[in-house]
Amino acid sequence: MTMRDMTKHDMTTRDVIFPAGRQALYERNRYSPAIRSNGFLFVSGQVGSREDGSPEPDLEAQVRLAFKNLEAILKAAECTFDDVIDVTVFMVDPESKFETIWKVVPEFWGNAPHPTLTAVGVTWLYGFQFEIKVIAKLPESLDR
């Protein structure tokens, strides 16, 4: 098998996880919400988007909705926040928004020991103020 064949094969065997009711949004934007691979779940960045994909205007509600959107993906893969091992968050203007954002986190974070975390300040998130992406360990029964 050539390298090209291996790449082509890998592209056709992605084990994609879709949360209920939001597949059209991901198809329209041309990305997968999450992919299972080698015992892990790799989740694309989740924002506080409403059903139609538009941003929730209230920051605290937007962060809570981003976590709920993430939770729906974790649930679809039979995972919980306790299975999350690595987190990356993106915040527009973190200096002024960090406290508001971070007061929502304990509602969802899971139990200690907590996952690793990288926080990145950005200038633009397509109209959103917060985005979270994670890597989770799949339950042993789903270890693929």
Describe the structure.
This protein has 144 residues and is α+β, with helices and mostly antiparallel strands. The protein is built from four helices and six strands, in the order αβαββαβαββ. The chain has helices at 3-12, 23-29, 59-76, 94-102, and strands at residues 15-17, 34-37, 40-47, 84-92, 116-122, 130-137. Strands 1-2-3-6-4-5 form a six-stranded mixed beta sheet, covered by helices on one side. α4 (94-102) links the parallel β4 and β5. It is globular and about 40 Å long. It starts with a helix and ends in a 7-residue tail after the last strand. Residues 1-9 have low confidence and may be disordered. It comes from Litchfieldella anticariensis (strain DSM 16096 / CECT 5854 / CIP 108499 / LMG 22089 / FP35). This is Endoribonuclease L-PSP. GO terms for molecular function: deaminase activity.
Which stretches of 5+ consecutive residues score pLDDT under 50? 1-9
Strand content: 25-35%
Radius of gyration (Å): 16 Å
According to CATH, the fold-level topology is: 60s Ribosomal Protein L30, Chain: A
CATH C-level label: Alpha Beta
The fourth-level CATH homologous superfamily is: RutC-like
Q: Helix amount, in percent?
A: 25-40%
In sequence order, what are the helices and strands, one letter per element?
Answer: HEHEEHEHEE
Apparent shape: globular
Number of helices: 4
CATH architecture label = 2-Layer Sandwich
Mean pLDDT: 87
Order of strands in the sheet with most strands: 1-2-3-6-4-5
What structural category do the secondary elements indicate? alpha+beta
Pfam families: Ribonuc_L-PSP
InterPro entries: RutC-like_sf (IPR035959), YjgF/YER057c/UK114 (IPR006175), YjgH-like (IPR038743)
GO cellular component, one term: cytosol
Protein name: Endoribonuclease L-PSP
